[in-house]
Design a protein that fits this description.
The protein is built from 5 helices and 12 strands. The chain is α+β, with helices and mostly antiparallel strands. The chain has a single domain, classed as Pnp Oxidase, Chain A, CATH 2.30.110.10. A 7-stranded antiparallel β-sheet has the order 3-2-6-9-10-5-4, with helices on one face. Strands 1-11-12 form a 3-stranded antiparallel β-sheet, with no helix packed on it. It has a two-stranded antiparallel sheet with strand order 7-8. The protein binds flavin mononucleotide (FMN). Flavin mononucleotide binds next to strand 3, helix 2 and helix 3.
Length: 201
């Protein structure tokens, strides 16, 4: 099968893309609206891209009606966000927090998640997660236009909060304890407990 993207419906391209480029880690992002509402939403167009400075990118795409998601609106307004870890115990709640609410409603109420103050940014971080990364925006790059077009939010991590309980004896993040989950295509998600080790050549 081949797909000529230029002759294919956007939604079909999207479905194929997320089924192929998988698994994707999930950023559970907290932002703050201009009127002080804490927004919480998951994004799997997400990864880390360098360490000096530490850089993450995630993409709140435009909605099917071409409008901006609350997360993007908030970040455009104040340039700050927190990436909260997505682990197994929160799978259902992460999914629930993807519900489209109006900008004046908080997904914190929907999910019962408690927050803690961040140190370097105004959006709070989630209290009950293995780690949280406070970020400030370096640049936002819109790519394309219309439904499901990307907005690359490039962020610099200012502070990393890591629960000591998820570190191994060498002080490194232990995947067996973080229990990250990731997104594949359709309604498929995956766990990360089937580990194997390779030595770097
Ligand atoms: C696991 C998961 C991953 C998601 N990844 C993305 C993504 O990368 N980009 C995106 O725009 N929407 C993604 N969504 C959908 C958003 O979470 C959803 O549109 C949400 O309502 C946006 O919230 P907001 O309007 O409060 O920013 C994802 C949903 C789930 C459940």
């Amino acid at each position: 099968m081949q797909i000529d993207v230029s002759k294919t419906e956007v939604v079909s391209v999207y479905q194929m893309l997320v089924g192929l480029v998988a698994p994707r880690p999930i950023a559970w992002v907290t932002t703050l609206s201009a009127s002080g509402v804490v927004n919480l939403a998951p994004f799997s167009f997400f990864n880390a891209f360098g360490a000096n400075p530490p850089v993450v990118v995630f993409s709140p795409t435009l909605k099917r009606d071409g409008g901006k998601k609350d997360t993007l609106v908030n970040i455009e307004a104040n340039g700050e966000f927190v990436i909260n870890a997505s682990s197994e115990k929160h799978a259902e709640l992460i999914n629930i927090s993807s519900k489209m609410l109006s900008p004046d409603e908080s997904e914190l109420n929907l999910t019962g998640q408690k927050t803690l103050e961040s140190i370097r940014v105004k959006p709070p971080r989630l209290a009950d997660v293995p780690f949280a990364l406070e970020c400030k925006v370096i640049q936002i790059i819109p790519v394309g236009h219309g439904a499901i077009s990307a907005n690359l939010v490039i962020g610099e991590i200012l502070t990393m909060h890591i629960d000591d309980m998820v570190l191994d004896e060498k002080g490194q993040p232990d995947p067996r304890k973080i229990k990250a989950i990731a997104r594949l295509g359709g309604e498929n998600w995956c766990r990360t407990q089937d580990l194997f080790q390779l030595e770097r050549p």
